Sequence to fold (447 residues):
Amino acid sequence: MTATSTQAALVVRDAAHLLEGAASDYDKLLDLIGDARFVLIGEASHGTHEFYEQRAEITKRLIQEKGFTAVGVEADWPDAYRVNRYVRGVNDDSTPNQALKGFERFPSWMWRNTDVVNFIGWLRQYNDALPPQAIKTGFYGLDLYSMYASIDEVLKFLDKVDPEAAQRARSRYNCFSHFEEDNQAYGYAATYGLSESCEKEVVNQLCELQQRMQEYAERDGQVAEDELFYAEQNARLVKNAEEYYRTIFIGQILSWNVRDKHMAETLDYLVEHLNRQHAPTKVVIWAHNSHLGYVRATDMGIAGELNLGQMVRDKYSDDTILVGFTTYTGTVTAASDWGGLSELKTVRPALPESYEALFHDTGLPSFFLNLKQDADAVRELEKPRLERAIGVIYQPQTERISHYFYARLPDQFDAVIHIDDTKGVQPLDRIPHQDNVEPPETYPSAL
Fold:
């Protein structure tokens, strides 16, 4: 360790707040959050127990002390909505494990793990204990990988409320039928002119559904407002997913931007929907650091990427707080390749020129650092450094290329939580290799 890095570690240590496992650990973070309505809490990997555990603890306090009533996550809309129904006590699932059964697609351990089960169980108990008229906290997916599942949900809804409209929807969605639910096969064929694009059909279906929403709401028995919104969002997801799968063969940045724009759009529509029940809605969002940190402070942003954190910050300004997590070493639950089994993999010690290595050099096992404070530590961290990102795939043999990028941490996040030695999440089950699971546009990091 050089004299310069030693000095940097010392000033960070002086400004950091040690986390000791006490109830008061995040008091300073809640002070920083204040009255903000959007708190975006990241993770440096999709398989680290401490990230999930501490994010859940912060979220519990936001719900109990700050009035947050929605948790938005980097997960598919239909699967998360099953959990939403469970935590609000409006479906037949009897346990958190059952409520998470919808998460069958790789990487299922992202949500089917013991930390998520514990949080979902807590949230159900919290909601059940509320007074009858109180607003219950919901759980919502923001991602767009569920195109075929969302088609099924739209058809299921229309079969119940408007069989004739269901026939028209089937005719439109039949455009996808000969791809056997292989999203990438559709995207490839549509991009390279091997098949007609289904863009017109999915747009027309969304438009028709939106035009008839009021009619459905006014029918005998009145379809519940939540059910209407759920169906509309599924139709919107199909439209955006169709675009996404056409863009993945054009360029990584374009497809990434389509995906994160969808997440931002979903958040906006969700807030608008929830505001009709109780305004102003406060939302905590769980996703990877790469989606939630302000992307313009990274070399990915310089290359043209947008992300959810940037779009939320740009729209809601001071109503937004961005929180990142980092770790130096330990283990992580990840796969070696897309569609593979989850493994408990050793996380290599962070590269010397990284933020993670600098935080390790403080000698603190875990700490919270306010990046908005006027301190020498924040000025020291403004110098660009490497930052590690592990998705659902971890390939340590190509770690520098696959899992690092440059960032300016104080511009990327409002606060960072560093846990020096971490361990992998515990999956609820181990599943065999799945067919028809396509690699994302971020392969091999798979964020």
